[in-house]
Amino acid sequence: QEQLQESGPGLVKPSQTLSLTCTVSGDSINSDDYYWSWIRQPAGKGLQWIGRIHITERTNYNPSLRSRVTISLDTSKNQFSLKLTSVTAADTAVYYCARDNGYLGLAFDFWGQGTMVTVSP
Amino acid sequence: SFELTQPPSVSVSPGQTARITCSGDGLPREYAYWYQQKAGQAPVLVMFRDNKRPSGIPERFSGSRSGTMVTLTISGVQAEDEADYYCQSADSSGPYVVFGGGTTLTVL
To answer: Comparing C-alpha atoms, which of A27, A51, A47 is closest to residue A94?
Structure first.
């Protein structure tokens, strides 16, 4: 049973960079069967996929966020990370990390519990 | 761009059948996935590749598709099924992932 846990600052100032890390409990981060994604959800709203990374370090990003997003991988720590630059209040949301299981298609079968990030002076 | 449209809300009485639809022009070419999200919790995958149930998901959950629409059907709805439901697909040209706006299922 894979477990994912997000960590990072809960408060970021406007124009600064949001940085989050997801720690993966099992060994599947080293498998080429999975991608590792970030997904966010503003309060009371729907889900928005931010992007994903593979063990080969191949990445795919949401076109609407691509210019501000970087996702990276550190397999030695079983972690992957999100950096979102030039944040505004519109980036305030619960941020989830999730495993994208290639065996199931492009489905997110394990999720972190989510971490709330507020953009405010 | 690839967009998915869901009704904002669906209401049913316990024991009845709930049908939650998701439409999008890209759906004939791409698989659909469904997630259940209860208040304050992370989403849970309840259907993949249109009509496949992950381990642990009750048999009352089923999925189907017809043209540009996919449907999540919950037969014999129970109070515990009250949640937000999101459809998801992927634009393989990216690829990039798209979610529908979500449907709130209310069990009356």
So the answer is: A47
